[in-house]
């Protein structure tokens, strides 16, 4: 199966103290973009901005659902409640810095505030976890920067080769 044909399974974890699933515009925008590529969203949940809750949601999606990609949405800025990178590091083994660097480089073409992002990308087993911003505009701009590399990343993690 070529990378282009690979059906990727996603989980979306929105990190917010205030948002409910019905109000998760950024998460829903990501879901639409994923489905438009013919990929699957196995799970879309909201968790509080707490390291333990975010970490558990990542583990549940990666290990329990066996998704290829976990997209976190929100909690990667400078607010004291922004703890998504810490939660991601707590449950992942390997850093994948190029994706986070690529998102920031892409976003820097749009706004200098992109340099304030603390987003990380890491690998947990055969799953890649990518921190995206919480705003719909920023989340979709970051998605545009990375969507093209995800089939290759998923294939590599599944030991399908180049």
How does this structure look, described?
The longest helix is centred in the middle third of the chain and has 14 residues, at 51-64. A 6-stranded mixed sheet has the order 2-1-3-6-5-4, with helices on both faces. Helix 1 (25-36) packs parallel to helix 5. The N and C termini lie close together (11 Å). With 162 residues, it is of the alpha/beta class. The radius of gyration is 14 Å and the shape is globular. Helices cover 40% and strands 20% of the residues. The mean pLDDT is 95. Strand 1 (9-15), helix 1 and strand 2 (40-47) form a beta-alpha-beta unit.
Secondary-structure blueprint:
Elements: E1 9-15, H1 25-36, E2 40-47, H2 51-64, E3 69-73, H3 84-91, E4 94-95, H4 97-108, E5 121-124, E6 127-132, H5 136-146, H6 150-157
Parallel strand pairs: 1-2, 1-3, 3-6
Antiparallel strand pairs: 4-5, 5-6
Helix pairs in contact: 1-5, 2-3, 4-5
Structural class: alpha/beta
Give the DSSP E fraction (strand runs of 2 or more residues): 15-25%
Work out the number of β strands: 6
Q: What's the mean pLDDT score?
A: 95
Structural shape = globular
- Helix count equals 6
**Integer-rounded radius of gyration:** 14 Å
Q: In which order are the strands of the major sheet placed?
A: 2-1-3-6-5-4
Q: Report the sheet with the most strands, covering strand number, pairing sense and barrel closure.
A: 6 strands, mixed
Order of helices and strands: EHEHEHEHEEHH
Distance between the termini: 11 Å
Helix content: 40-55%
**Low-confidence regions:** none
